[in-house]
Amino acid sequence: EAQVTQNPRYLITVTGKKLTVTCSQNMNHEYMSWYRQDPGLGLRQIYYSMNVEVTDKGDVPEGYKVSRKEKRNFPLILESPSPNQTSLYFCASSSTSGHNVQFFGPGTRLTVL
Amino acid sequence: AQSVAQPEDQVNVAEGNPLTVKCTYSVSGNPYLFWYVQYPNRGLQFLLKYITGDNLVKGSYGFEAEFNKSQTSFHLKKPSALVSDSALYFCAVRDWGSGNTGKLIFGQGTTLQVKP
């Protein structure tokens, strides 16, 4: 089944404790992206990647890092989480040859205390 | 600057009645427009898209959307709402301002509530 998976689905952590949210897709998509969803703000892009070893900042990259060492994986790293990073996070992927229909993961609800 | 606006936070409709969820956009370049739906505790699911061609686009679950270039709108519609259509709906537009990155700009979302 074609899908985007994320882990963990739920995470409660404390300020300053490094964490990684994994994202994996099995559709051989070149493009991958991380979004955060906050009430009233829709989805805002954090980082994106056009292909392996090619990443770039989105609209709200501060406090986040990503890597793209393999085509299928695009982990999101919070080196020192803060309470304002409490949010719902989505990973998405798409083919660059299509018309940008993005496939989304199930989401990761992160709470930073 | 490219942008998407969904003017209604919530739309309430009775089951069996037609529904409309509104979306307007501002974009430089050709408007590639999308609708996604988010059910509780789920990721976003693609409903339909407009790239070119007919202004009326048909998508999943009986939804359709009408592209109106003069009004820069892309409203989502369904002739007869179901209780199971209750969800959060997002309109999105491709961001040409970011080059060929495939980036989408999302509206803030509209909650659709269909009552029996």
Which descriptors apply to this entry?
heterodimer; A: 113 residues; mainly beta; seven-stranded mixed β-sheet; four-stranded antiparallel β-sheet; 11 strands; 50% strand; globular; B: 116 residues; six-stranded mixed β-sheet; 12 strands
SSE map:
The complex is a heterodimer of chains A (113) and B (116).
Chain A lengths: L3 E4 L2 E4 L5 E7 L5 E8 L3 E10 L2 E4 L7 E2 L9 E3 L8 E8 L8 E2 L3 E5 L1
Parallel strand pairs in A: 2-11
Antiparallel strand pairs in A: 1-3, 3-8, 4-5, 4-9, 5-6, 7-8, 9-10, 9-11
Chain B lengths: L2 E3 L4 E5 L4 E3 L2 E3 L6 E6 L5 E7 L5 E3 L5 E5 L4 E6 L8 E8 L9 E3 L3 E6 L1
Parallel strand pairs in B: 2-12
Antiparallel strand pairs in B: 1-4, 3-9, 5-6, 5-10, 7-8, 8-9, 10-11, 10-12
Task: Describe the structure in your own words.
The complex is a heterodimer of chains A (113) and B (116). With 113 residues, chain A is mainly beta. In chain A, 0% of the residues lie in helices and 50% in strands. Chain A has no helices and eleven strands. In chain A, strands 2, 4, 5, 6, 9, 10 and 11 form a seven-stranded mixed β-sheet that branches. In chain A, a hairpin with an 8-residue loop joins strand 9 and strand 10. Chain A is globular and about 40 Å long. The model of chain A has no long low-confidence stretch (mean pLDDT 93). The model of chain B has no long low-confidence stretch (mean pLDDT 91). In chain B, the strands form three sheets. In chain B, strands 2, 5, 6, 10, 11 and 12 form a six-stranded mixed β-sheet that branches. A four-stranded antiparallel β-sheet of chain B has the order 3-9-8-7, with no helix packed on it. Chain B has strands at residues 3-5, 10-14, 19-21, 24-26, 33-38, 44-50, 56-58, 64-68, 73-78, 87-94, 104-106, 110-115. In chain B, 0% of the residues lie in helices and 50% in strands.
